[in-house]
Design goal:
The complex is a heterodimer. By secondary structure, chain A is mainly β. In chain A, 0% of the residues lie in helices and 50% in strands. Classes of the chains: A mainly beta, B mainly beta.
Chain lengths: 117, 116
């Protein structure tokens, strides 16, 4: 069974600093997808960034980038020039290519990120 | 336009009651989901459903049942509510584009259920 581990329950950095959130996963699949979702205090789940396992290039979305290490089964999220609005819970999630219509996401426990002014 | 909507956003009820949470998506997606987020923020899939099959997480009590009147709706019915059912419930949807492509899941705003 697939598992996702986020080892940092909470992190806190100053505004404008760079922060890296860690995520490791366990799977025997060779092809799969990885995601980082953000959940601000509003509760809304927002997709931050995604990575296909067959792509060697790390995904980047503006200030957000990932360090995907397939052999190590590691998928960390780097937030550059952090902003107050980045304060949220961040969830790492894993999805293997669906069989039939089973597209279930496996979630990590989340990391609470606090950006201090 | 709201992509995935849930009603109500907050639901407070007594133990033993039966309640429903409604979910609607206007994205034309084929698959819908229900997740439960507990007090420790842990997210757990409860159901995934499209017009072909219902996948049930085996740990979900049979007091919970999804009902889909049409492709755009997947409502969650809960019978005989218990204190441990208190949580935030999220609905989500994704497009069925086949096995070769990932399907981003779009989430509703969540429903906070409190059982007294």
């Amino acid at each position: 069974a697939q598992t996702v581990t986020q080892s940092q329950p909470e992190m806190s950095v100053q505004e404008a600093e760079t922060v890296t959130l860690s995520c490791t996963y366990d799977t025997s699949e060779s092809n799969y997808y990885l995601f980082w979702y953000k959940q601000p205090p509003s509760r809304q789940m927002i997709l931050v960034i995604r990575q296909e396992a067959y792509k060697q290039q790390n995904a980047t979305e503006n200030r957000f980038s990932v360090n995907f290490q397939k052999a190590a089964k590691s998928f960390s999220l780097k937030i550059s020039d952090s902003q107050l609005g980045d304060t949220a819970m961040y969830f790492c999630a894993f999805m293997k290519p669906p069989l039939g219509s089973n597209y279930q996401l496996i979630w990590g426990a989340g990391t609470k990120l606090i950006i201090k002014p | 336009d709201t992509a995935v909507s849930q009603t109500p956003k907050y639901l407070v009820t007594q133990m033993g009651n039966d309640k429903s949470i409604k979910c609607e998506q206007n994205l034309g997606h084929d698959t819908m989901y229900w997740y439960k987020q507990d007090s420790k923020k842990f997210l757990k899939i409860m159901f995934s459903y499209n017009n072909k099959e219902l996948i049930i997480n085996e740990t979900v009590p049979n007091r919970f049942s999804p009902k889909s009147p049409d492709k755009a709706h997947l409502n969650l019915h809960i019978n005989s509510l218990e204190l441990g059912d208190s949580a935030v419930y999220f609905c989500a949807s994704s497009q069925d584009v086949g096995t070769a492509t990932y399907n981003e899941q779009f989430f509703g705003p969540g429903t906070r259920l409190t059982v007294l």
